[in-house]
Design brief:
Chain lengths: ~290, ~250
């Protein structure tokens, strides 16, 4: 009985038997794997950038693009390799990363603490929110002259500028995350008899975590941006220094390498945050489904 | 049994709640006996939800007396589970007991969700999520269980199953239950007593004497239904023979 009802030909899809599948004489000569060949999407995606690179290289070789405008891809590659091998790139990268991380961690910490104060207490909001809102409208780069006068041109100024840039995205997002928690969940928590501390720990903090991550991403981007700028002030190391030094010597190849490093690191850090989110926000529908 | 458990868990005397000039609850008296299942019907704006929220402690009253047991739990139309907590953690949220996980497992087993202990709410179906919410309420062993249209958002088939489940759980845990609903059939199927609320007052209350387990085809069911719908402003035709069977009218006040 089961054999009858499970007759495979009645529901399996047989490509060869489909009406359009009658192979013509020519296509029979081509092997199946060639006919069924599908170029992977990755390769297709890479096609146009590679073509552009080749064009660029060609134009440089023919002298259409002078080196003082931009160096040839081959030259950039060669310089990059030399800088990696000599350890020069690693040294500057490390210095930059340290600056960014230090500034970022201080900035994010301040942002989190301030958002917790204003988000969790009315009085905190009254006292702290308006100064925070006023400060956030000042572009942190506009503080450079003042910071130089106050703190000199040393490391402190550089880190302080990154701190001022990275505090506010975290502050604003976490604050709104805390305030926008579904009031129905708060009500449910109240009927369950949670006390204030438990409410914060079990409901408000986990519920505002997604907003925190949004803020963190902005802050990361800004820390990177600030780095480019502050490393042009009296520095002897760092990617920003490398770039401004290269400008003085018209080394377009080095400048391009610096740009590449900024973008690659930006992507890497974004990937890192994504991974973090995947663990911390595993409960979100978008992650749960995967 | 202690004296406390014999006293009516819910006692309301002349309760008033108003928003601005509008009295949403207007001098309401209500007693609910231990283990009694009361359904509250009423058109939108009749004050049902406000009453339930006052009983749940989510809203205050402006005057009158309101006595509710400390051990109470509420289940709402939406499950209101914490999306970031797995099912079992949601169940014992806010409980301070040893061996909490075992209690959560027990409560979820009772509602037929032993296999979804570690599921995040986002992965639960509407019915499953609502069962977790029920388990979360019952694990607290409430003296009063407040249900605010808990089955309204469920599909018809799931709702039938949930009706059966809620009666089972009510029999087992014997809390007093106050069910707010729009569904007249649901009220008659589940409740010992149906209260119709209008303009913040009890307009009518009926004791439902139909034997359990009930169904809508039962003798007397349609008569009660017609009567309640009439009170809610919906006129329906009922065969004359079926009228007034199994209905005992309560004078209120």
């Amino acid at each position: 009985m089961t054999e009858k009802s499970l007759n495979p030909s009645s529901f399996s899809i047989d490509k060869a038997a489909s009406p359009s599948g009658e192979p013509s004489g020519a296509s029979r000569l081509i092997p199946d794997w060639v006919r069924n060949w599908r170029t992977p999407d990755v390769l297709l995606r890479l096609l146009s950038p590679i073509a552009l690179l080749l064009l660029w290289e060609l134009a440089s070789q023919l002298g259409w693009i002078p080196q003082r405008v931009i160096a040839a891809p081959s030259q950039i590659g060669g310089t990059l390799w030399a800088m990696i091998v000599s350890g020069e790139l690693g040294k500057h990268l490390l210095v930059s990363l340290q600056r960014a991380l230090l500034g970022l961690s201080i900035g994010v910490s301040i942002g989190v603490v301030a958002a917790l104060i204003t988000g969790l207490s009315r009085r905190g909001e009254v006292i702290l929110d308006s100064p925070m809102q006023m400060l956030r409208t000042i572009p942190s780069l506009a503080l450079v002259p003042l910071f130089i006068l106050w703190f000199g041109i040393g490391e402190f100024t550089k880190v302080a500028l990154i701190v001022t840039g990275t505090t506010f995205p975290v502050y604003l997002n976490l604050f709104s995350g805390i305030r926008n928690i579904d009031p129905k969940l708060i009500e449910a928590a109240n009927t369950l008899g949670l006390n204030r501390r438990e409410l914060i720990w079990h409901v408000i903090l986990p519920g505002s975590l997604p907003s925190f991550f949004v803020g963190l991403r902005y802050s990361l981007g800004i820390s990177w941006l600030a780095l480019v700028f502050v490393e042009q002030i009296n520095t002897t190391a760092g990617i920003g220094f490398l770039a401004s030094d290269a400008r003085d010597f018209m080394r377009t190849d080095v400048i391009v390498i610096c740009l590449l490093i900024y973008s690659v690191l930006g992507l890497l850090i974004d990937g890192l945050i994504r991974t973090l989110e995947r663990f911390a926000l595993a409960w979100r529908p978008s992650f749960v489904r995967n | 049994m202690s004296i406390d458990s014999l006293a009516p868990p819910v006692q309301l005397r002349n309760v008033v709640r108003q928003f601005g000039q509008q009295r949403v609850i207007d001098g309401l008296d209500l007693d609910i006996a231990p283990g009694e299942f009361v359904a509250l019907l009423g058109a939108s704006g009749s004050g049902k939800t406000t009453l339930l929220r006052s009983l749940a402690g989510l809203d205050s009253i402006d005057s009158g007396q309101l006595r509710v047991p400390k051990a109470r739990a509420a289940v709402f139309q939406e499950p209101r589970l914490m999306p970031w907590k797995r099912a079992w953690k949601n169940v014992i949220l806010g409980l301070h007991i040893p061996d909490a996980k075992a209690r959560a497992v027990q409560a979820l087993t009772e509602v037929g969700l032993a296999h979804r202990l570690d599921a995040y709410p986002a992965t639960l179906s509407g019915g499953e999520a609502q069962r977790v919410a029920l388990a979360r309420g019952l694990v607290r062993e409430p003296k009063l269980l407040l249900l605010d249209e808990p089955f309204a958002a469920l599909d018809a088939l799931t709702r039938i199953k949930m009706h059966k489940l809620i009666i089972e759980l009510w029999r087992k845990h014997t809390p007093a239950v106050l069910l707010v609903t729009h569904d007249v059939d649901e009220a008659i199927l589940l409740a010992d007593r149906v209260i119709v609320l209008a303009d913040g007052k009890i307009a009518e209350q009926l004791t439902i004497d139909l034997p359990r387990a009930r169904d809508t085809g039962q003798e007397g069911f349609q008569a009660i239904r017609a009567r309640l719908l009439g009170l809610l402003g919906v006129e329906v035709e009922v065969p004359a023979s079926a009228a007034a069977v199994g209905v005992r009218r309560f004078a209120h006040g």
